[in-house]
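Lab notebook: predicted structure, single chain.

Context: the supervisor wants predicted structures on file for every construct in the current expression panel, including those that have not yet been purified. This is the next one on the list. No modifications to the sequence; it matches the entry in the shared construct table.
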Amino acid sequence: MMTYKKVKNLKYFPNNQSMIVLIIVLSSLFIHAYLISFPLVNFEYAFIGVADYFRTSNNLYLEQFFRAQANTLGMPYLTYLASTALPEVELITLYRLINLIGIPLLVYSIIKICRFSGIENHIPITLLIIFNPIIWNFSERATADFFPAALAIFAVSVTLTSKKIFPSFLAGLILGIATVLKYHAILLLLFIAFFYFWKETPKLAAYKLTIVSMVAISITFVYLYLVYINFDFLVVPVHFQNVHKISFSNFLSNFLQYSGFLVLIAIPTFFLSRDFLKVAFSRLKVTGLVFAVSIIMYYFMIDSGELNLGPLDSYVSIDMRMFILVFGGAIFFIIFFISQRGADDPNFIKVFWYTIITILLILSSTRPAQRYLIFILPFMIMVLPTVFLKSRLIVVSTICFFFIINIYIEYNRWNTGVAAILMAQEIEANGFMQDTDPGAIYPHVGNRFPVNDAEKKDYVIVAQKNNDAIIITSSGIGGLKKYYSLIRK
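Prediction complete. Output recorded below exactly as produced.
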């Protein structure tokens, strides 16, 4: 059992690692700040619009949000509150800044949890988290993903501070707010439970967990009640309830995709580790069984959600993506076994992994999406095998790979946003707005189009260059250009 004496005397960032970690965080924030004025993409307009709804009471913004999003109104409302204090700052800037605040909050929380858990290698862990494409991508977007995750992980870190009861109440308060911002935050109660029962007597752990749970769930219920009396639905808008319902029909497929995706985004250069290969080949029966099950599962895989490769999907077929994720799922379990080798407390690492797997199993019961992994990706990186985190080859090659992916994502984000804006402007200038189905540009500039599903449209926008198009817009250079074409239906 862990003792509080060890934690109580901790000085967070007590050595020269602190300066390196600080430089990593500041460098990341500087780059994000430079990119903060990028055009809106992937339904950012819906979040910004509903934040404006709280300021203007324009129901059109609310309608656009509920048509496009199953997320809560928490992040838009938080942005609205920030705008009352900073009315001169644009809503899009405020929203993205709130998410960026999550970067130092996340790093502080992860370092604190690492120190409590006796996990070292803080610099590679920080690098692998901050520059991870999923973290990088969502930390600068005006969506309801990154800041709630950072806040929920901060709530977990608050529980590690002392034997007193107040931190449990505070953790519940923070977790409740995070859950109002994003429902998935409540899943981190499992990590709070893990740490409580690991370091406390069962009676005290149960008491503290009850406090955290009651406070967090009470705050969530208050939000749900307010939504119900104001908007007449529970949890998510009616037309999303079937999409996001709990279902076990694709449970195993979703779980394998999630586990494979975690490996792909956490440590894609795992194969460079001699220890990994040594363990994999020294236990051929176990390795063979894992891969045999994965190969069988490949034929039952269903692409049922958003566990895709983003802009890279245009270069990879669905079958190839599924194969990669299934292969990654097999690697996930091999890494699980390796991570316990050489650990100071293998049982602690094992239960830590069991907590990650349990959350993955819960997530697998609903429609999957890569953004949900933001809540558990930092925890998985923390318990990666020590031989991975201490390998300069693996860490450097992974970070270089992340940089390449992030540059491409930013390049694609800019071109997608610009080309979509140009198309909307051209359509409006030529009088096609009422007769056009926004199609491919709906996620980026859908707020510019009139809402009328019943009316038949004569034109539609596709995400490619069409020689028979009435209007073509593009952004970018060479073979990496982004095209949109307006064509007749």
